[in-house]
Fold:
Amino acid sequence: MKHYLSIFFSSILAGMCIFLGATVFLLVLPTNKVLASFLFTLGLFTIIQFGFHLYTGKIGFVLDNKPSYLIDLVIILVTNLLSAAAFSYLMSLTKMGATLHETAIGVVDSKYNDSWYSVLILSFFCGIMIYLAVKGHQVCPYPVGKAFLVIMPVMLFIICGHEHIVANASYFAYAHKFDLKTVFYFFLMLVGNSLGSIFFDCLIKLTKKFLPKEENK
Structure:
């Protein structure tokens, strides 16, 4: 029970970190998208540094864990989404709410009017980028390199318009957009983020498996 409670509270904090990144992104986006994408990286960087549980950062390692890990993932996903959406809704009630709502509508409408297969593909590549950020931070021995390998993939997925399910929970909450199509698109984001991360993890494992032993050290 303590294990699941720990995951639950850690997942709330992770959702809050993504909410903070999404909020500053929306505030800066109208003036400078590159700077906005850079400031968004604070969310994932904080999550990695504190070891919080973020679904898109955990799903890529599902093959390294026991079947019970799937329960952890469900708790993480649901809590991340509710946390990011709830904090965003609370922020929308402040004096900045109107500005955030207006910008979020533009961001969400672009996603909402996209085709289902485009959302799926963009989510797939976002999964890869988040895996690169998390795994890159793990394996890089240099402090500067660790930071670089978190910041660059996150900036890339934002600038390229990739779909991150938890960040979108924040955007959609700010835009006050929720209907059956929203649920369907979030399902596509869930599938895409998951497959992208798992796919890249499998490629790395296969690469190591078939490399000569002296090259695999």
